[in-house]
Specification:
This protein is of the alpha/beta class. Helix content is about 40%, strand content about 20%. The chain contains 12 helices and 15 strands. It has helices at about 40-55, 65-80, 95-100, 120-135, 150-155, 160-175, 190-205, 220-235, 255-270, 300-310, 330-335, 365-385; strands spanning about 15-20, 20-25, 30-35, 60-65, 85, 105, 140-145, 180-185, 210, 240-245, 285-290, 320-325, 340-345, 350, 355-360. A hairpin with a 2-residue loop joins strand 1 and strand 2 (about 20-25). Helix 7 (about 190-205) runs parallel beside helix 8 (about 220-235) and helix 8 (about 220-235) packs parallel to helix 9. The structure holds iron/sulfur cluster (SF4). Iron/sulfur cluster binds near residues 289, 291, 294, 295 and 328. Iron/sulfur cluster binds near residues 290, 294, 295, 328 and 330.
C-alpha cells in the first residue's frame, strides 16, 4: 500500500530491510500482526498466517519459547513465504535457533536481565547482533512500559525517561557494533504515553524507523479507538513506519487487527480523521492482551469479555482492570491497574494494585472480581467524601 498525502511529510529515516520489505520513510507504512494459535499446532498456525497475509499483513509475529516451538517454526517456514518475526522473551540464546527460519527478531531490553545474570547485557546484545548479521535479519528493540529494564527504572523516576534511556542505550550497543538494520518500538497501554514517547524519540533519533503500537489496547471498540488516537497523533505528523494494532479477539478473527490497521493508515492519509490531541481517559478502562501462543487457557478471550460485562456497573468510575493471557507478561503488565488478572492453565491469578489476592478457578473468578470492584468503589467514595 502506498502512502501519499500532500498534508503529511514522513520523517526521513533509514531503510530497514525485512527481507524484501523496507521499513522506513522510503517504503510504505507496513502493518504487522501476530498469530494467536499454539505454535506447535502447525496446521492451525499456518492457517492463521495465511489468513493474516490474505488480509494484508506485511510481517507476522509468532511466539517461540521452546525447542519444540523451534521445530514447529522450521516446518512453518517451509510452508509459507510470509515474513516472520519472532519475539524473544527471556532466553536471548534462542535467537540462534530461530534465526534460520525468520526475517526479523524482536527483543525487549527489559527481558535481558533475567537469564545469565553474570553476562553483561552488552554481551547479550552482541550475540543477538552477530546472529542477525549472520542470517541477514532485522532487529526490533521493543521497549515496553510494562517491562522496563530494572536498571533504567532505578535511575529514572519517570517511566517515560526510563523507556527513552533504555532505547537509546540499546541503539548505542547496536551502532557500536556497526549494525543499523533495526527499528525501535516504545509501547504502553496508555495511548497518551505512546504519543508522547514516540514524539520525543523521533526528535532525539530522527533517523531510526519506528514501529508504533498501543500494547494491550483490548477489545473492540475501545481497542481500535485507543490505537486510532495514538496513530492519528503520530502518523499525521509523519512519525511511524510500521504499525501493529493489538486487539483482544477470538483467534479466528485476528485478521481484524490487520484490517483496522490498514484502515487507520488509509483514513489518516486521506485526511479522514478528527484532530483529537489526546486520548480522553473517562470512566472504566479495561486493558487486555491480544493473546498469542503463550496464552495459558483458551477461555482467556471469553474471560476478558465477561470481566468487561460484569464491570459495567462501574462504567463511570476511573478504574483500570487488566486482563492478561499468561504469566510471561501478566504480573508486570498488571502493575499499574487497580485490578489485574492473568491466566494459568486451571486458575486465574488476581491482584489488587501490587497485592496478590490469590488464585481462583475459572468458575470462581468473576464473583471475586465483582466483590473487589465494589470494595474499590466504596473506598474511593468514602475517601472523597471525607477529603
Ligand atoms: S500476555 Fe501472554 S498471552 Fe497475552 S499476548 Fe502477551 S505473551 Fe501472549
Amino acid at each position: 500500500m502506498e502512502n501519499a498525502s500532500p498534508q503529511i511529510t514522513r520523517r526521513k529515516t533509514r531503510s530497514v530491510k525485512v527481507r524484501d520489505l523496507i521499513i522506513g520513510s522510503a517504503g510504505p507504512i507496513s502493518v504487522q500482526s501476530m498469530c494467536a494459535t499454539k505454535t506447535q499446532d502447525i496446521p492451525a498456525t499456518l492457517n492463521q498466517v495465511s489468513m493474516l497475509v490474505d488480509h494484508g499483513a506485511d510481517v507476522i509475529r509468532i511466539a517461540v519459547d521452546s525447542r519444540k516451538d523451534v521445530e514447529a517454526l522450521a516446518e512453518i517456514r517451509k510452508a509459507t513465504s510470509a515474513r516472520i518475526v519472532v519475539d524473544l522473551q527471556e532466553s536471548y540464546k534462542l535467537a540462534e535457533k530461530v534465526a534460520p527460519f525468520v526475517d526479523k527478531i524482536r527483543y525487549n531490553p527489559g527481558h535481558l536481565h533475567h537469564h545469565e545474570k553474570n553476562v553483561p547485557v552488552a554481551e547479550k546484545v552482541r550475540f543477538l547482533v552477530q546472529t542477525a548479521k549472520t542470517h541477514n535479519l532485522a532487529l526490533r528493540i521493543g521497549v515496553n512500559f510494562g517491562s522496563l529494564d530494572p536498571s533504567q527504572r532505578a535511575e529514572n523516576d519517570d517511566p517515560m525517561e526510563a523507556a527513552l534511556h533504555s532505547a537509546t542505550q540499546h541503539i548505542g550497543y547496536l551502532e557500536d557494533l556497526g549494525f543499523q538494520n533495526y527499528v525501535v518500538s516504545l509501547k504502553s497501554s496508555d495511548p497518551n504515553d505512546v504519543i508522547d514517547i514516540n514524539r520525543k524519540f523521533a526528535e532525539r533519533h530522527p533517523e531510526v524507523p519506528l514501529h508504533l503500537g498501543v500494547t494491550e489496547a483490548g477489545m473492540l471498540p475501545m481497542g481500535e479507538i485507543k490505537s486510532r488516537v495514538a496513530f492519528e497523533n503520530l502518523l499525521a505528523q509523519g512519525i511511524g513506519d510500521t504499525v501493529r494494532v493489538s486487539l483482544t479477539l477470538p483467534f479466528d478473527k485476528k485478521y481484524e487487527e490487520v484490517i483496522i490497521g490498514k484502515k487507520i493508515i488509509a483514513d489518516i492519509y486521506a485526511g479522514r480523521f478528527r484532530s483529537v490531541p489526546r486520548f480522553e481517559h473517562s470512566g472504566l478502562n479495561i486493558i487486555s492482551c491480544p493473546s498469542c501462543s503463550r496464552v495459558e487457557n483458551e477461555k482467556f478471550v471469553e474471560l476478558a469479555q465477561q470481566v468487561r460485562e460484569l464491570a459495567q456497573f462501574a462504567a463511570k468510575e476511573q478504574i483500570t482492570i487488566a486482563v492478561m493471557g499468561c504469566r510471561v507478561n501478566g504480573p508486570g503488565e498488571t502493575d499499574d491497574a487497580d485490578l489485574g488478572l492473568w491466566c494459568a492453565p486451571s486458575h486465574v491469578n488476581l491482584k489488587r494494585k501490587s497485592e496478590l489476592l490469590g488464585q481462583f478457578g475459572y468458575d470462581e473468578i468473576l464473583p471475586r472480581v465483582k466483590q473487589e470492584l465494589e470494595q474499590i468503589i466504596a473506598a474511593k467514595h468514602g475517601a472523597s467524601t471525607t477529603a
